[in-house]
Write a structure and sequence with these properties.
Number of strands: 14
Helix content: 25-40%
CATH class of the domain at 93-282: Alpha Beta
Number of helices: 10
Length: 379
């Protein structure tokens, strides 16, 4: 029998001679198939391994959904103590004041912020707006003064704001009527200073309770309100002294913003010439210097008072500043009246300086008298 040395391999076409080569070829195919079975069919870790159907889950961690909320983390204990809450001024208190001639005057009392100074060292202030204005025009200044330990009684003048109710004249049944500023009669205007007297009466009660010092009473007024403030200050100093108790003479300082000399039947001339205004009280005038009409008028009023008071030019500068009781603030603006209290202007800072120099630093001369102060006899 003839030996067959050929090895026919399907697909290769030409017979391959030699059994050795055939063995090598078969061994190569076996190794190649084994190696190919070990390669993954897909890139690794594209999908997590799954459990066979019907088999219990393994001890592997559970799968977390991609949008699942993370478990809460306990906050760390702060290493520093929280800052204590800063003191804030009290909210204004609304009240109704009754005048002797039957008007119900709306007022807002801005009490002093606590822990600034004692009540017996607190400056009480009455704020008087301009004609056709209202007490809320003073809000920014009143709150600012609160934070410095001052107390302000801010009123709506009769016929203005929420002060439009009065008792019907001559009626004893309690009937009232509503009157706006345009309906004010000459008698109403001539008695408008009584609105300030009603405000002082309320401050007197607070003085008697030790909450303010009425001996430091100050009035801050604007435009036509300055005429009313000047007249009332003269009246406050006109009460005669009695052996039993002090009455009147409580107003010690006036701040006059853009004061006008006259309006309707009211005039400031008589009050400016009175010895109380000319010689006794500390005065501060303020005006928007970019309005020539207002600026020249206020400058004339200031100069009239300055000529009546002793000159401080020859004194030592420090001593002159200590004795200075007349101020003129000419703000770089055309704004007037309560608008001068805008935070961008120097008027508010000047008012604070004025109150400090003329009242707080003179506290030894303006000591709280006692708890038995009362309204003047006959008022």
């Amino acid at each position: 029998m003839k030996r067959n040395d050929r090895c026919n391999v399907v697909g290769w076409g030409t017979p391959v001679r030699g059994i050795g080569f055939c063995l090598l070829l078969a061994l190569g195919c076996l190794l190649t198939g084994s190696a190919r079975g070990q390669l993954p069919s897909k890139p690794p870790f594209t999908q997590p391994p799954t459990q066979p159907p019907g088999q219990p889950p393994s001890a592997q961690p559970p799968k977390t959904p991609p949008n699942a909320q993370k478990p809460p983390v306990k906050p760390k204990t702060p290493t520093t103590k929280p800052k204590p809450k800063e003191d804030t001024p009290p909210e204004p208190v609304s009240m109704t004041l009754n005048t002797r001639d039957g008007w119900r005057i709306h007022a807002e009392y801005y009490g002093p912020q606590e822990k600034i100074r004692s009540g017996k060292e607190t400056v009480p202030i009455i704020m008087v707006h301009g004609w056709e204005g209202q007490g809320s025009d003073w809000n920014f200044l009143a709150v600012g003064l609160q934070t410095l330990g001052h107390a302000s009684m801010v009123i709506d003048l009769r016929g203005h704001g929420r002060s439009t109710t009065r008792r019907v004249p001559g009626d004893n049944t309690g009937r009232t009527q509503t009157i706006s500023v345009d309906q004010l009669k000459p008698d109403d205007i001539s008695q408008i200073w009584r609105d300030l007297e009603a405000a002082k009466s309320e401050l007197m009660r607070k003085n008697n309770a030790g909450e303010v010092n009425i001996e430091m009473l100050t009035v801050i007024a604007a435009e036509v309100g300055c005429i009313i403030a000047l007249e009332w200050a003269v009246r406050d100093w006109a009460w005669p002294m009695t052996p039993a108790f002090k009455q009147g003479q409580d107003v010690k300082a006036l701040v006059l913003l853009s004061p006008v000399e006259s309006y309707r039947r009211m005039s400031a001339s008589k009050s400016l010439n009175h010895t109380t205004i000319r010689d006794r009280l500390s005065l501060m005038f303020a005006v928007g210097a970019e309005d020539p009409r207002f600026a020249s008028s206020v400058k004339r009023m200031h100069d009239r008072i300055e000529r009546a008071r002793p000159s401080l030019d020859r004194l030592d500068p420090k001593e002159a500043e200590r004795l200075r009781d007349l101020f003129l603030i000419e703000a770089p603006t055309s704004l007037q009246g309560t608008a001068l209290t805008d935070r961008s202007l120097p008027v508010n800072r000047a008012i604070v300086y004025f109150l400090t120099k003329r009242l707080l630093e003179r506290s030894e001369d303006l000591q709280w008298i006692g708890s038995e102060r009362r309204r003047p006899i006959g008022d």
